Amino acid sequence: MQSARGFQFLLSPGPTPVPDRVLNAMHRQSVDFSGPDFIALSDKIFEDVKSVFQTKSVVHIYTSNGHGGWEGVLANLLSPGDEILIPEVGVFSEGWRDMAQALGIVCRTVPNDWRTAIDANRLEEALRADVDRKIKAVLFTHVDTATGIVSDVKAARQAIDAAGHPALFCVDAIASLATTDLPMDAWNLDVVVGASQKGLMMPPGLGLVAANDRAMEASKTATLPRRYFDWQERIKGMHYQRYAGTAPEHHIFGLREVLDMLAEEGLQNVFARHRRLADAVRAAVEVWTEGGAFELNALRPEQRSDSVTSMLAGPNLDVGALQAMGRPMNLYIGSGAGSMSGKSFRIGHMGFINEPMILGSLAAIELVLRRAGVAIGQGAMDAAIASLAAAEPARTMANAAE
Ligand SMILES: *Cc1c(COP(=O)(O)O)cnc(C)c1O
Question: Where substrate is bound, by residue (predicted)?
């Protein structure tokens, strides 16, 4: 029996690898969270975290995972019996819908298959049909981490505007924040939800919710019960109230480091790196799929997300067996999520990742596929390397020296 040794390139759709810089920043003794040093750090975090959302609006920080962020959005914007619209994009739009229903919200959906992104025209039609303007909010998932599909947030915003509908536009960016461009203010998004453990390269534990003035205004009159999640309580000005209690200090130390790292690289470069690495994954997977054992879940190339790639297994592919074969060599192969569990596998490519991690993981996955006797096309690694080589023509040795 082989023991798992060596680094695990955790190409997971969350939690993702945590940089040593972030781990080191978190590895320290607790501090007095109401002392001047921590308050100064915290005040700066609340300002600087806005840059990740590309917004000037307030960002609320919950000591929670992404689900906590979801609940915070619903509890602050809605009242019992309110109606909302949820374009169906996959596992995570279902999850947010189920949570809303549990809170007493009436949910309408724009039905869709899980292999293409939602068509903004259908969103517009659904909103036009709401002549009494009963729909209070549209919940929209940017990247569905199960289907691997990225939806067009800008087009969705335009659809809402074209319908002249006043619904608040709330975007789940948990799997796209700091991987894929989503300028909150430029695109006039009312609410954007994130979480620490995906593109933000941190351990799970922070739910982040950016809310613009319209959303903050709506939270003054919405009547769903809330206290911990209450935005109005959190902006009253007291340091303690911003966190509704003890600050998640160590996560704040980590977040400081993450914000510095993102600023050093530059957000646009972060997005470009994700695109480049995702393209390499897709190039390899497309070659594998020539063998017919599995296919890319996202049917349209332009709708394949730069955060995660999801493969739909054919009837003869045992995903669990592949995962089990990978584990002894410390290779992680992502499971399918929600109702895609067992029927798909995933390669996450978000956060603290680079070319060697991508190439190493792809090669190791191919090794497992070959050992398992899965029919795959030949030349996937070549295709991945060629994709990366073509993506960086400016970074030749000669240029790098300049
Ligand atoms: C991971 C994820 C969630 C859930 O986040 P948790 O931190 O697991 O609660 C929600 N939406 C999307 C798009 C996700 O990727």
Answer: 346
pLDDT at 393: 56
For ligand 1, whether the C-beta of 65 sits within 6 Å is: yes
Residue 312 and residue 295 in one domain: yes
Q: Are 349 and 358 in contact (CB under 8 A)?
A: yes
346 is in an annotated binding site: yes
Structure tokens given for 394: 């400016």
CA 327 to CA 96: how far, in whole Å?
32
In whole angstroms, what separates CA 107 from the centre of its chain? 23
Return the closest-CA partner of residue 46 out of 208, 166, 201: 208
Residue 352 sits at φ, ψ, to 5 deg, of -85, 70
pLDDT beneath 70, residues of the chain: 1-2, 393-402
pLDDT in tens, 88-97: 999 999 999 9
Q: To test ligand 1's pocket by mutation, which of 74, 145, 251 has the most ligand atoms within 8 angstroms of CB? A: 145
Instruction: Assess whether 231 and 282 both reside in one domain.
Output: no
Cβ atoms of residues 361 and 6 within 8 Å: no
Q: Would you say the pTM of this structure is higher than 0.85?
A: yes
**Number of domains observed in the structure of the chain:** 2
Looking at residue 2, its pLDDT comes to 65
86 CA to centre of ligand 1 in angstroms: 16
Asked if residue 278 is part of any domain, the answer here is yes
Q: What is the CA(172)–ligand 1 centre distance, in A?
A: 8
Say if CB 295 and CB 311 are below 8 A apart.
yes
Would you call 159 helix, strand, or coil by DSSP? helix
- Closest CA to ligand 1's atom 2: 174
Give the pLDDT score at 326.
94
CA 335 vs. chain centroid, Å, equals 16
Residue 1 lies in a domain: no
User: CA dist 202 to 16, 195, 207, 266, Å?
Assistant: 7, 9, 11, 18
How far is the C-alpha of 291 from the C-alpha of 288, rounded, in Å? 6
CA of residue 382 to ligand 1 center, whole Å: 33
> Which residues span the domain enclosing 124?
20-263
Q: Which residue CA neighbors atom 15 of ligand 1 most closely?
A: 175
